[in-house]
Design brief:
5% of the residues lie in helices and 58% in strands. It is mainly β. It has a 14-stranded mixed beta sheet with strand order 1-2-3-4-5-6-7-8-9-10-11-12-13-14. The longest helix is centred in the first third of the chain and has 7 residues.
Length: 330
């Protein structure tokens, strides 16, 4: 990395024999601004160059005796359109800060090289939008709390045969509170619209295990470039994850199922899939799932399923099927 030598030079330990006492210095700087700069990040690990266009930021004032919050605004444009923007306010006395981060129309296909390290795919598409609020303290930034919204439009993953196996017109999530330090994650809602899934089963495995390299435990789980020594990143004591999703829904989903276990492929289509779940959390003792769908564009299925997350054998199933054709099973 071309900054390593500078970091090493300025990280050298101070001369312990030098007893000169440094004087307190005072400073006051106003109107710090950078306009329309361009940055290029060349990641040799995946042979990918990222271009950040029109990088700009503005800091009205910072001073040694400042008592009011400092403001810092930053913005840059993405190469394929859209932008990143943030507004940061920091109290210089106690370190309390709040920030608003906005991402507009971030196209996901530039991240293909990173995803392809873990999945055998030909394409990775989508467009991400988000608005995230962050509150915390600079003295303990790791304890910051996040909230806001994230959405992905026109998401699609294509396998090496050119077949779309996972897609969605829109995915939305409302974040109530993300507390990484305490392992608490609470979502107000998670909604998926117009999803498509292609699932293929054979005698050895299935297409998802093959795509995400899950058939061989030694394959795909650790990137060849992600080997990190244990003392590189500080770790916190392992603790259980607390999660909560107040409402989860899937609307107008499609599942194409192919079974190759018999002598010839058995294909079946489930469409107009609608699934709803309320109040999912790590302490649930019972889950109620409501689902409706079309069976091969003809029959209908309505179901109410109750599940004990700690014992899947303890469940209740109420299913109503109409106009199901037995010839579809031939």
């Amino acid at each position: 990395f071309n900054f390593d030598d500078l970091i090493a030079f300025y990280s050298q330990p101070e001369d312990s024999l030098n007893t000169e006492v440094s004087e307190t210095y005072k400073f006051s700087i106003s109107n710090i601004e950078l306009k329309k700069s361009n940055f290029y990040f060349d990641d040799k690990n995946v042979d990918k160059e990222t271009h950040i266009k029109d990088f700009s930021f503005m800091i009205p004032h910072i001073g040694w005796n400042q008592k009011e919050k400092s403001n810092a605004d930053l913005k840059f444009n993405f190469e394929n359109g859209g932008y990143f923007q943030s507004a940061l306010n920091i109290n210089p006395i106690d370190g309390e800060f709040d920030a608003l981060v906005t991402i507009k129309d971030l196209y996901l296909n530039p991240f293909y090289e990173y995803i392809s390290e873990y999945a055998e795919i030909n394409d990775f598409k989508g467009r991400l939008n988000s608005q995230i609020k962050i509150k915390g303290n600079t003295n303990e930034a790791i304890k910051s709390i996040l909230s806001g919204s994230v959405s992905v439009n026109d998401f699609e993953m294509v396998d090496t045969n050119g077949k779309t196996f996972l897609s969605a017109k829109q995915m939305n999530t409302e974040l109530d509170s993300i507390d990484y330090f305490n392992n608490n994650y609470e979502l107000a809602s998670l909604t998926v619209e117009g999803s498509y899934t292609f699932f293929q089963l054979d005698s050895i495995s299935n297409n998802f295990f093959q795509i995400f390299k899950l058939n061989d435990p030694s394959e795909g789980n650790v990137s060849k470039n992600s080997e990190i020594t244990s003392d590189t990143i500080p770790s916190k004591t392992a603790q259980s994850i607390n999660y909560k999703i107040n409402k989860l829904s899937l609307n107008n989903g499609v599942l194409d199922y192919t079974d190759n276990l018999t002598g010839q492929p058995f294909n079946y289509n489930l469409s107009s899939i609608k699934i709803e779940l309320d109040s999912i959390n790590n302490k649930n003792k019972w889950l109620d799932i409501y689902a409706t769908m079309l069976l091969n564009d003809r029959g209908t299925l309505k179901s109410e399923i109750g599940i004990d997350p700690n014992n899947y054998l303890n469940s209740t199933i109420n299913i109503a099927v109409e106009k199901f054709l037995l010839q579809d099973l031939n």
